[in-house]
Write a structure and sequence with these properties.
Layout (H helix, E strand, L loop, with lengths): L7 H20 L3 H8 L3 H8 L10 H19 L4 H9 L9 H4 L3 H17 L1
Helix pairs in contact: 1-4, 2-3, 4-7
Pfam family, one: Xre_MbcA_ParS_C
GO molecular function, one term: DNA binding
Organism: Thiohalorhabdus denitrificans
């Protein structure tokens, strides 16, 4: 008897949730900072990490999580996947961004600006 495939939407929700948690961990973001970035509560982040909550494709958290994962992937490509270098970059002042990336991503416009900055530098690299 064949096992039915999981609903694609539920699978997508699980995959993006896991990718978001992984990106936050690799970037050195605390639960509170991740909650701020994607617009959810600290307790929701805890449930995400335990696999008891999956992001909602119809909510702002989905779009912000996609941006965070994109940031992680772009920075990872630039830093050759070195987590320590990535965390240092996130915590250091950046002249072009006029601030610390980890602080900037707390705002939606800051997250978009950091992603655009990394995408532009990734294209050059």
């Amino acid at each position: 008897m064949a096992i039915p495939a999981p609903d694609q939407t539920e699978q997508d929700r699980r995959i993006l949730t896991e990718a978001t948690v992984n990106a936050a961990t690799q970037l050195g973001l605390t639960n509170s900072r991740l909650a701020e970035v994607i617009g959810v509560s600290d307790s929701t982040v805890s449930r995400m990490k335990r696999g008891r909550y999956h992001l909602d494709p119809g909510a702002k958290e989905w779009e912000l999580s996609l941006l965070l994962v994109r940031l992680f992937r772009s920075l990872g490509a630039i830093c050759a996947g070195d987590g320590a270098v990535m965390r240092q970059w996130m915590a250091s002042h950046n002249r072009d961004l006029r601030g610390v990336p980890e602080e900037a991503i707390r705002r939606v416009d800051g997250l978009v600006e950091v992603v655009d900055y990394l995408d532009a530098h990734r294209a050059v690299a």
